[in-house]
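Researcher: Here's a chain I'd like modeled. Treat it as a single chain, no partners, no ligands.
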Amino acid sequence: MKVLVTGGCGFIGRILVTRLTELGYRIVILDRRNPVQVGLSFDGEVANVVGDIRDPEAINRAFTGDIEAVIHLAAVTSVLKSKLDPDETFYTNLFATHLLLERARQLDTKIFVMASTNAVAGSVGENLISELTPLNPLTPYGATKAAAEMLMSAYTDFTGLKCCPVRLTNVYGPGMGEKDSFIPRLIRAALAQDEITIYGDGLQVRDFVSVHDAVAGLIMPLSGDICGPLTIGSGSSISVLDLHRAVCEVTKRNIQIVHGPEQAGEMRAVRVDIGRARTFGFEPRVSLTDGLAETFRDFQLRTGPKN
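Model: Modeled as a single isolated chain. Structure tokens:
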């Protein structure tokens, strides 16, 4: 099978492309960056198209007639950035998804997978978030992903394209040095012997899933057996304060905490039900402790021996 991967040079994308080539897939990457320019080298059959997913001409160059499946990763993924620039978030996360879906329809592509998010559900209190939870996003990021999921549902119904939005929880792991989410900020603070800001009381809970498990979940729909939303996470949630303690233990550093005000649009609790994914054979393999240790080692390698 030949698979188009958007955002293949990104944090999740580079690990996804590596795994797909190990499994024998032929890959076309569409990314604003060239893999060589960011120090990436892939084994197997990997072609690269440099371009913006909002540009129909770039999509046409990447989307040849023998593409059988798409895994769409490229997106604005920062909640903060989505609130600061809703326009860019709309065009990147929703308009570009429409362009890709329409090109897939025109070329009779069979499978369309998109990295979505549990944030499409919004705040549900202490309840579990599942594929049946009504969509009620709180931010432009969550709203554009929810709208993209609805587009995918429509394309499945009126074209037969097998669409699967994979709702990922908080993904972490090696290669996330450019990210500004909480785990990389914690690790950078540990390496710099600096303090970390925790918004609110730190008792808000999140599900953190290893990038390796996330990639396994993104590959599953390539079987052609899965349509509709699929929740991928660890299935176990932890408070921000407990995560801070876990990173302190792994890094053997004492990271001082400064509390800041609660952030608008932040979900108080994220607890997900991964039961549907389990019916298709998914099972989280990487424990939080092992995953944090791997991520910390990766940061150490990238920042030099002085750390």
